[in-house]
Amino acid sequence: MGNIIWLASYPKSGNTWMRILLTNYLRDGDEPADINALDTGPIASARHAFDENVGVEASDLTEEEIERYRPYVYEQMSAASDQTLYLKVHDAFTYTDAGYPLISKRATRGVLYLVRNPMDVAASFAHHSHCSVEKMVRAMGNERYSFVAKSDRLHNQLRQRLLTWSGHVSSWVDEQGIDVHVVRYEDMQANPEATFAQVIRFLGLDNDLARIRKAIDFSRFDRMQAQEQEKGFGEKMPKAESFFRKGQVGAWREQLTGDLIDQLVTDQGTVMKRFGYLSKEAKLVY
Fold it and tell me: Where does residue 100 fall: left (phi above 0), alpha (psi -120 to 50 degrees), or beta otherwise?
């Protein structure tokens, strides 16, 4: 068993919120943690982590060569740590062209998989990427879609293959040989205490109710927004107005037209039903 707990999700599904919650819980401090200095490691696709562990700069390699090395990067990171590492990852659970899992199972202790209604994801991800919702809905239905895929400049992250939204979710939750705990964004919003307590138990941490409640209070959306307004947030895309924009459940109803809703249901309906976003009668739940 490795030392890495993966905080895995399709983009804009609550990953950053979970990292802030965990940091506030782990620190158990007297004030909210700085959102720009969290107690979680680099994102799995961080270029600097790759370069440091491989000894060869990713810029000198092809995308396929980079992916062949990435599993060993995580194995080295896991072996070098005597404590649990909490690492954010947006990649789908895919395999390299050599047939090895991109996210090494040997390095893995467990997975927290964050899932969110793709209707809300489409609206939030479009804002984050500074593109139209129409373009994002198409991207979420494209099995070849990748994040940070353009080669127009040297990005601080490596390419991340996302697949379709449904493909991303299924790739993690259905993968054999890893321990996965699924957290719905909507449950975190509706019942944060019970939902986060389940996360704490899954991670094997002390199930301290007072500490859980304090972490939740310190991680309130308005607190995160205030911090971003005061000192910025390093993970915000340059063209986006803000990272912590709304964080609401059901905000898609104000932004998605009927044809886009129909397209998302057509593309993602099976997995939406599986996770309670679409009823058996194909009615939208959230």
Answer: beta
